Amino acid sequence: MATQRNNTWPAFPGGEQVKIASLDTVDLGRLLTKNPIEIKKLLDVCMTHGFFYLDLQTCKEGLQLIDDEQGVYRFMEEYFAKPLETKMLDDRKSFLHGFKPVGVFTGTKESHKDAYETLKVAREEMDAKSELMPDSVKAKMELFDRFMNLSNLVNYTLLMCLSDALGLTGNARLEESHRRDQKSNTCLVMLHYPPTETDGTNIGHNKHTDIGSITLLFSEQWGLQVFDPETQDWKFIQPRPRGHATINVGDSLRFLSGKKLYSCLHRVIPPTADVQTEDRYSIAYFLRPENAAVLEDADGKVVAASKWHDDKYVMFGAPHQEQDKGTVLTGGMETILGRA
Ligand SMILES: O=C(O)CCC(=O)C(=O)O
Ligand SMILES: [Fe+2]
């Protein structure tokens, strides 16, 4: 039985009525004890929506993650409030490590750039306690190490339950292409959407499917939207702070599952008509396959997981016209869902 720590979730800003996605909730405690009904439910949501809430309040690992989530927000408020010049010292011009300023990628609106900055910590650098990690992260090593380990445990639990539900054995099990001692692009990404101008050139986080296998996402604020194939429009995802994470399947897991699982199309827009009025924070832990894992993409092309990662990041920076020409940005899902 879930101990509900909080079920009064924030209302949409300004009291406006908006379309809200109806997502199922999966229980982490039940998955950890291999409850067959919960495992079946997990498979069903991953085959039909690819997006769901995960209730973290039903096991000690989840409760610790909820507490640490708050610690990470406090860190982010302090970190992103620093002057740009200071944050740029952490810019390693990398898709996997360090700081990225606002405006590197394409935004949600034609001829606009993105409106978010990020700080990334790769799992392999955390595992190696690498000196290359940002000093501010190293100063909070205990928090980040625990947070990333718990996020990893959650995503592996999902992966193992999905392997069970799909009846996979031996090397075909999904965990076998996500071995922790192999090189991968698995990482923690902290995202900050600063307030924007009315007529600014930066807006949102453009529509996309995630590159990797499973994304564990936290945010206490509105802005995330998912494309609903039934109604052919965007719906907001209700934030459920202090108790739930939002989980989604990414392209790599879709491809590894022989396209049985559904990699979901999503984006972030300011909830208040094109202008981000408050600072928005979100935290994503991206579990990705080993770099050498072999994927068959939406066009039937065989690619290494690391190449899919790099190609997709290059596409994030391309103009809309270019993005719309191929299947990379949305993992081919627009052919299935309809054009967003
Ligand atoms: O900021 C968010 O809520 C979502 C970010 C996201 O979709 C991503 O970084 O892939
Ligand atoms: Fe995403």
UniProtKB/TrEMBL annotation:
Question: Start and end of every Fe2OG dioxygenase domain?
Answer: 183-289
UniProt cross-references to InterPro entries, sorted A to Z: DIOX_N, IPNS-like_FE2OG_OXY, IPNS-like_sf, Iron_ascorbate_oxido_reductase, Oxoglu/Fe-dep_dioxygenase_dom
Entry keyword set: Iron, Metal-binding, Oxidoreductase
GO MF terms listed in the record are:
metal ion binding; oxidoreductase activity
Q: Which PROSITE patterns match?
A: FE2OG_OXY
Q: What protein family is recorded?
A: Belongs to the iron/ascorbate-dependent oxidoreductase family.
Provide the protein name.
Clavaminate synthase-like protein
Q: What is the lineage of its organism?
A: Eukaryota, Fungi, Dikarya, Basidiomycota, Agaricomycotina
